[in-house]
Amino acid sequence: MRHRANSATGEPAPCSPVPAGAHTRVPRERRIAGGGVVRVVSAEPAGPGVDAIVCEYDFPDARWTQTFLSRPLAPRQFEEALAGAGLAVESYATEDGTWVRAVPVRGAGGT
After folding, report:
1. Which of 85, 79, 76 is nearest to 11 (CA)?
2. Is residue 73's pLDDT more than 50?
C-alpha cells in the first residue's frame, strides 16, 4: 500500500495500495496510454516502516519527477486506515490494485 504525506501534519496518510514487492523491485518502468513511461527510480528508508519513493513521468510533451512517502500495508490494514479517515474503498481502478477510488463513509464527518 502506498501512503502520501499528509500536508497538514507531514505524517503518512492513506493513498492507495501497491502490489507486493513494489518497494523492493526498483528501478522499474511501465508504459502507459498516450506514449508515456512511468519509472520508479528509487525506494529509500525515510523512517520506521516508511520509504521515500522517487518516480519519473516521461510523456511526449512533458516530463516531471515526484517524491512521496510510502508505507507497505496489507489490504485489511489499508482499508482500516481509510476507515480511520472516514473513507471506504468503492472500487479498485486497476487490476494490480495500485489505484483505488475511496469515498466518504455515510455518516462519518457530518456526511
Report:
1. 85
2. yes
